[in-house]
UniProtKB/TrEMBL annotation:
SMART domains: PKS_KR (SM00822). Gene3D superfamilies: NAD(P)-binding Rossmann-like Domain. The keyword Oxidoreductase applies. It comes from Herbiconiux gentiana. This is SDR family oxidoreductase. The keyword Transport does not apply.
Length: 234
């Protein structure tokens, strides 16, 4: 696709943060946007969007959503369900849920939605800077993100000519860090900005702009785009 007008987009994890910004922009460009998440009733819907329930850890819910929505032109899968902490403390079910959100669920999205996508369809997956810069307590995040990059490459080959791209954000002020509290979050953002070459943290707008480019550039597939302010080099 080279334009979003009139195209149907499924945004999994689009009820908050970066996904909500993508939904807002895509709706403004004339796309028919369906936002999917585990709590559709709680989503504050941007204009020209609607919500549907879908849990990436539950294949039946993915199959049901596919039947309910019908064919889509693009899927943006940016759910995250974190399981951070020292390896010795990790709970197996939380680890599985985190990998469901990043890897297994996106594979099942491809299974249930790709067969009815058009040849110019697009799938956008989400990695993150922890893939290139794993730190203590981030084993699951780093693994899930790296797997999402590999999955984008593999799907791009198998589903061709449907295009598949992974986006790898750096630290983004998306709301996901708000639970730290203002003081700790602001300190974290300041130290992140001081260390990365862009000298700032990112915004949801920074990432949404690249996602819209990835959706509409017909020669882009089988790759990961790092939108991280150079954070993986810091
Ligand atoms: N923010 C950052 O600094 C940063 C950095 C690097 C990478 N990223 C990546 O960028 C993406 C978006 O980040 P964000 O900060 O915008 O995230 P966010 O606000 O935390 O959003 C995550 C979304 O995932 C959904 N979700 C979680 N588990 C799900 C499941 N099993 N099934 C369906 N939906 C599920 C949540 O919706 P429900 O709870 O309603 O289901 C939520 O809307 C993520 O993949 C994240 O890893 C972000």
């Amino acid at each position: 696709m080279t334009s979003l007008a009139g195209r149907r987009l499924l945004i999994v994890g689009g009820g908050s943060g970066i996904g909500r910004e993508i939904a807002t922009r895509a709706g403004a460009e004339g796309a028919d946007v369906v936002i999917a998440g585990r709590h559709p009733e709680k989503i504050d819907l941007p204009a020209r969007t609607r919500a549907i329930g879908l849990d990436l850890a539950d294949e039946n819910s993915i199959a049901a959503a596919s039947s309910a929505i019908g064919p889509v032109d693009a899927i943006i899968a940016l759910a995250a369900d974190h399981a951070n902490g020292p390896v010795a403390s990790l709970d197996a079910n939380r680890v599985r849920r985190a990998l469901d959100a990043k890897v297994v669920g996106p594979i099942l999205l491809a299974k249930h939605f790709a067969p009815s996508m058009p040849d110019d369809g697009v799938i956008v997956l989400f990695s993150g800077v922890a893939s290139s810069r794993p730190g203590p307590d981030l084993v699951v995040m780093a693994t899930g993100n790296r797997a999402a990059e590999g999955l984008a490459d593999a799907l791009a080959v198998e589903l061709a000519p449907i295009r598949v791209v992974a986006i790898s954000p750096g630290i983004i002020d998306s709301g996901a860090w708000d639970a730290m509290g203002d003081e700790r979050r602001n300190e974290f953002f300041s130290s992140t900005a001081a260390a990365n070459p862009a000298r700032r943290v990112g915004s949801p707008e920074d990432i949404a702009a690249v996602v819209l480019m990835a959706l509409t550039n017909p020669f882009l597939t089988g790759t990961t785009i790092h939108v991280d302010g150079g954070g993986r080099l810091a």
